[in-house]
Amino acid sequence: MAEVIIVPDAAAAGALVADEIASLIAADPEVVLGLATGSTPLPVYEALRPRLEGVDVSKVRGFALDEYVGIDPEHPESYRNVIRREVVEPLGLDPARINTPNGALETIQHAGDDYEKAIAAAGGVELQILGIGTDGHIGFNEPGSSFASSTRVKTLTEQTKKDNARFFDSVDQVPTHCITQGLGTILRARHLVLLAFGEGKADAVAGAVEGPVSASLPGSAIQLHPRVSVVVDEAAASRLRRADYYRYAWDNKPDWQGL
Ligand code: PGA
Q1: How far apart are the C-alpha atoms of 240 and 236, rounded to whole Å?
Q2: Are 148 and 221 in contact (CB under 8 A)?
Q3: Which atom of ligand 1 is nearest to 132's Cα?
Q4: 8, 32, 33, 122 from 59: Cα distances, Å
Q5: Does ligand 1 come within 6 angstroms of the Cβ of 131?
Q6: Which atom of ligand 1 is nearest to the CA of 137?
Q7: CATH numbers and ranges of domains, the chain
Q8: pLDDT digits over 145-193, tens only?
Q9: What is the dihedral angle through the alpha carbons of 185, 238, 259, 140, rounded to the nearest 10 degrees?
């Protein structure tokens, strides 16, 4: 089962996950990280910055989860640009080693396969950072997505478009299609770290961790993975039935175990 870690706030979550990522980089300077966009992972990237000062990160590799289809690559909200602005530049990573699915229309027919091949050629993702949508999506795998899916084009739900409208001038400007790593792709990463903060994520978190394993709640795919850390604040943990047990397990975690 997922290890559920309930932390006081997003900054504490960021520090915890950043410690783990910094150790991975120290152990393997060419480590392959699975990066995510959205508001949730930002405290991780912020906490990583001081931890990586003076560290050679020039060989770190990364794969983002998803991209909008047909968005101008120069658009500030294309995920390629978001990853560059929020991760690559602040952490001093090599942009040539950090990949985002290619949402260009001209090559979209084979962009999913190309991305899968690139991940496989890199040896797979060591640690995948995940947020979760209010509808339970991970990456842009909307409800109904196959647990076996690989990187492909999906249609965003109206809810997701509304959730993401804050990054655009209006909801109409949010692209309707995206290219996203599949649930099968995500499940191939060796360690999944799902973060969620705030009351608005409480139902999705409870469904992902404790609900039935169902394509109707794509985040529940994490129950099929042998190594998952779910790092949540009190509000996002508020609908978990076994919260007391998760706290007890974390408080009694042996020192020799990492995240
Ligand atoms: P958020 O998005 O981190 O901006 O809440 C999460 C997601 O949609 O996966």
Answers
A1: 9
A2: no
A3: 9
A4: 33, 9, 11, 12
A5: yes
A6: 9
A7: 3-252 (3.40.50.1360)
A8: 999 999 999 999 998 899 899 999 999 999 999 999 999 999 999 999 9
A9: 20
